[in-house]
Amino acid sequence: MKRVLLAVIIAILGVAMLGTTANAAGPEQRGGNRATKLMRGAGERIQAVSALLEMEPRAILGELREGATIESLATEKGVPLSEIEAALAQPYRERIAEEVAAGVLTQEQADYLTARTQERLNDFLTLSPRQALRQPMLEDLATVLGISEAGIVAQVEAGSTPAEIVAASGKGVDSVVAELVALKDGDLTERVNLDLMTATQKNRALRGYERMLTARLSE
What we know:
The chain is flat. Helix 1 packs across helix 8 (129-145) and helix 6 (81-101) packs antiparallel against helix 7. It is built from twelve helices and no strands. The longest helix is centred in the N-terminal third of the chain and has 23 residues, at 2-24. It has one domain. The chain is mostly helical.
């Protein structure tokens, strides 16, 4: 139960900020809502992968729920992972290029979105859904606590709660929350600087993130 709890916590916190940023983007922001769509589309990816692997989407999803990855399925089917990556990346690159040509996105915004899209694509190909969801939060938490991601997972598997893991690090919840918020602040500030969200939206998102962290890491 505790393992599931932390997995859910990490999953929620790992994707919450992307969702908050996406939903907050207003019409006055150049590329705000369109940028959101560029960074989504897992369903479209599964459809594309199903054709390349000659597998039904439901079959792929079933395998992923059991811990498989797109990379492992491609290996089983004898399909080069590079072929799948190219097929999935091309539509996003074309769409971003169209937005730049239309004046919706600046080149700097496009470069940022391209890099983030590639990161998410790499996770989609090489990680299981659970791993992909928890990875961002695991990385930040490991950095703040000064232990490895594997160390956090090991403590969870041993039955530790989030609060116990924080306590074992010698830090308090408030301190850990402050450091995690600072890391997220840096990421969101980059989006503000690129005009992909407003400072008001960033501050609202950070306040919500801080409340969520405090509640979850105290359990």
